[in-house]
Input
Amino acid sequence: MNIHEYQAKELLGRYGVTVLQGHVAWTPEEAAEALGIGRTQIYELIANGALKSVKIGRSRRIPVRACEEFVERLRANAQELPIRTARTELVINRSEGTQES
Output
């Protein structure tokens, strides 16, 4: 039996078999675009452990599933992005009535 790839994916999907579509992992730029945030925020999320990533040689990749899990956690917790940049610190400090040094 010879069938095309798209037919095989459709057939597998009918029986509940998960078939990956597209990339398994994104570059930081692709992940940022998919999440609608900036590249710098992606690196901050990686640095603070909120977004999982892997290194392949010298390249950094973010698994698509890691982005999906990140968004699921945000929905579950109903929180904003867990990032405290210099700009957000200034806003937080102003709202708390503290002075910058």
User: Anything to note?
Assistant: The radius of gyration is 19 Å. The mean pLDDT is 82.
